[in-house]
From TrEMBL:
Its EC number is 3.4.24.75. Pfam families: Peptidase_M23. Gene3D superfamilies: Glucose Permease (Domain IIA). Its cofactor is Zn(2+). The keyword Methyltransferase does not apply. The lineage of its organism: Bacteria, Bacillati, Bacillota, Bacilli, Bacillales. Residues 168-258 form the M23ase beta-sheet core domain. It comes from Salinicoccus kekensis. CDD domains: M23_peptidase. Belongs to the peptidase M23B family. It catalyses: Hydrolysis of the -Gly-|-Gly- bond in the pentaglycine inter-peptide link joining staphylococcal cell wall peptidoglycans. This is lysostaphin.
Length: 289
């Protein structure tokens, strides 16, 4: 880094003070090819208008070599998300609102286990829209996406090969005791980086639990589901394998709890975990053995 470069932790200060040209000079060439200096300065100035000071709220690393930072102005709840690579270049800047909802205070009555065995990584999860892209949408607000990593990577070898992903074919288990009430199966797994938006859940299992709570486990591997509607399951029972079906571009497990059987109509509920600890984006978590 040169002395003129902005360290990631300094970004909020420079943005709050309108140092947009200096910020832009540090953006990566791909960013510059998509947005001119004048356009960036105009958009940043308009977004900054009426704000106070942007403070660092969260940071995370979802992939090797890229760190993400969330800056929030507490007076207006405006949010700037930045991404820096290891060379200190700014590879992304996003302007948004840091949303919070009253439903954050409502937790599931039941306590749930993580729906897998072994160690997984929380790709998306948490009660804000920086850590969880599901959060603005009430039907998925408290949903999780889990992947598996080894050596910081989600796959070994060819990223276009489903079988190279550590999550693919990994066991998926029931998060709590209940009755299977819906099974979707027979949907082909996607080629990596393609999605089937016509069947967004892909292969999926919905389990009814006590207190009218329902869990959804989605994007399962085609023909891997081991249960049928009407089956009783206990926490930790294997029910399927992780896949890449539905609205999934690379293998991962989607999990959330909701107040009804229909994931498109039922509001999701913030989960109480049996461990007593709520996972958030960037955590490495371990399921039951």
């Amino acid at each position: 880094m040169t002395m003129e470069n902005i360290y990631p932790e300094e970004f909020g200060y420079h943005f709050s003070n309108g140092n947009f040209e200096r910020i832009y000079r540090q953006t990566a060439s791909v960013f510059k090819s998509r947005m001119s200096m004048n356009d960036f300065a105009e958009a940043a100035s308009e977004f900054r208008d009426g704000t106070g000071r942007f403070q660092l709220k969260h940071q995370s690393q979802l992939e090797p070599g890229i760190k993400r930072f969330c800056w929030v102005d507490s007076g207006t709840e405006r949010m700037v998300v930045t991404a820096f690579n290891d060379a200190g270049e700014i590879v992304g800047v996003q302007f948004d609102i840091y949303e919070k909802f009253k439903t954050d205070r409502v937790l599931t009555i039941n306590r749930y286990h993580l729906p897998f065995t072994g160690e997984w990584f929380v790709l998306w999860g948490g009660a804000n829209n920086f850590m969880n892209y599901h959060y603005p949408h009430k039907h998925q607000r408290y949903a999780y996406d889990f992947i598996r990593k080894e050596g910081g990577m989600a796959h070994s070898g060819d990223a276009d090969d489903l079988n190279a992903y550590y999550a693919y074919s990994s066991p998926v288990t029931a998060p709590a005791a209940g009755t299977v009430v819906r099974v979707l199966d027979g949907i082909a797994d996607n080629v990596p980086f393609e999605m089937n938006t016509e069947a967004p859940e892909g292969n999926a299992v919905i389990i009814e639990h006590a207190n009218n709570e329902y869990s959804l486990l989605a994007h399962l591997r085609n023909r891997s589901i081991m249960v049928e509607a009407g089956d009783e399951v206990a926490a930790g029972d294997m029910i399927a394998q992780c896949g890449n079906s539905g609205a999934s571009d690379t293998p991962h497990l989607h999990f959330h709890v909701m107040g009804g059987i229909d994931p498109h109509e039922s509001d999701s509920i913030r989960i109480q975990f049996a461990s007593g600890r709520e996972p958030v984006q960037g955590d490495n978590v371990r399921g039951r053995k």
